Amino acid sequence: MSNSFAFRGYPSGKKPFKKLLVAAMLWFFGRAIQAGARVDKAIAKEFSDLPEGFSFSLEVIPDGPGMVVGKDKKGKVKFLGMNLHNQEITLRMRIKNMSAAFLLFTLQEGNAISAARNRLIIDGDIGHACAAIRVLEIVEVYLLPKVLARLALKRYPNWNIANKIWGRIAIYVRAVAGV
Fold first, then answer.
1. What was the pLDDT predicted at 24?
2. pTM to 2 decimal places
3. Are 52 and 71 spatial neighbours (Cβ–Cβ below 8 Å)?
4. E-assigned strands of the chain?
5. Taking burial as the number of CB atoms within 10 A of a residue's CB, which of 48, 57, 111, 123 is the most buried?
6. CATH topology of domain 16-177
7. What is the C-alpha to C-alpha distance for residues 149 and 68, in angstroms, rounded to an integer?
8. Span 19-70, pLDDT tens digits
9. Residues 18, 102: contact at Cβ < 8 Å?
């Protein structure tokens, strides 16, 4: 008599709605980071401290969407698209699955909580990863109303209201226009 059991494997669901929402959010965040680097001094400073040719990706594994943002030779921050193949990526940040990405991008879970629950894999220099996460958090402050941004962040910054409003408008316009 054998004690072995045969288990049937079930593939995970495709989750097309979640994948579409996360892809749209990543696309917009990538463009907003590019715009934010031209509008906000703190974002520009974070990128200026990174090495020339630096790029980072934020992607969902195993086969989810992703985005790539990097610095060109002139030091300008560029959204390099959503194609992760055939690109030199210095820092890879991977969200472990689509459900974790959905929690993160729908603000059901903040960045710090997501990292604490081990839902993010960092492949690269940890200092560069901290800079990239700081950039993502600054962009979240600009993109989200204060009520929602407080859900995503550990600490909401105490910024001048006029600068925040004009910065928010500039980032939204530049992100939509792609400049």
1. 93
2. 0.85
3. yes
4. 55-60, 66-71, 77-81, 91-95, 120-123
5. 57
6. Nonspecific Lipid-transfer Protein; Chain A (3.30.1050)
7. 23
8. 899 999 999 999 999 999 999 999 999 999 999 889 999 999 888 899 999 9
9. yes
